[in-house]
Amino acid sequence: MVRAHLLISGVVQGVGYRWACRRAAQSIGVTGWVRNLPDGRVEAVVQGHREQVDRVIQWCQRGPEDAQVSDVAVSYEEAAEEFQGFGIR
User: Fold this and answer.
1) 18 part of the active site
2) pLDDT value at position 10?
3) 16 by DSSP, 3-state: which?
4) Catalytic residue among 3, 23, 35, 36
5) Opening angle at CA 41, ends 38 and 43, nearest 5
6) How far apart are CA 19 and CA 82, in angstroms?
7) Strands 2-11 and 42-48
8) Distances (CA, A) of 78 to 28, 46, 72
9) Residue 73: inside a domain, yes or no?
10) What is the pTM of this model?
11) Cystine design at 24: which of 6, 59, 61, 75 (Cβ 3.0–4.6 Å)?
12) Which residues of 16-54 are buried (b: 16+ CB within 10 A; e: fewer)?
């Protein structure tokens, strides 16, 4: 199990990014959360098997149709606690 912390930049707020990210993460089978930040970026924490987490990261680099993702900064860490589902904060 691995956990990834993502900071997504670009036109990602107001285009349904958080909800689409949640749906994608749930369909892939990872746990974690996603939220908007005051500076216009989106933050997400994704936990699961490495190949699942990498699939979510690939999705985040594209985002939903209306998003214009310019960068996804990713840092990995060991999964310390278990998340229940994938939520929006």
Assistant:
1) yes
2) 96
3) coil
4) 36
5) 95
6) 21
7) antiparallel
8) 19, 11, 19
9) yes
10) 0.93
11) 59
12) ebbebbbebbeebebbbbbebeeeebbbbbbbbeeebbb
Residue 3 token pair: 């956990």
Element (H, E) at 57: helix 50-62
* Domain containing residue 73: CATH number: 3.30.70.100
Token pair 């939903």 is at which residue?
64
Question: In whole angstroms, what is the distance from residue 79 CA to residue 53 CA?
Answer: 12
**β-strand partners of 87:** 33
Domain with 57, as residue range(s), is 2-78
Catalytic residue among 3, 18, 41, 55: 18
Residue 34 domain-assigned (yes or no) = yes
Side by side, which strands form the sheet with 86-88? 68-78, 2-11, 42-48, 31-36, 86-88
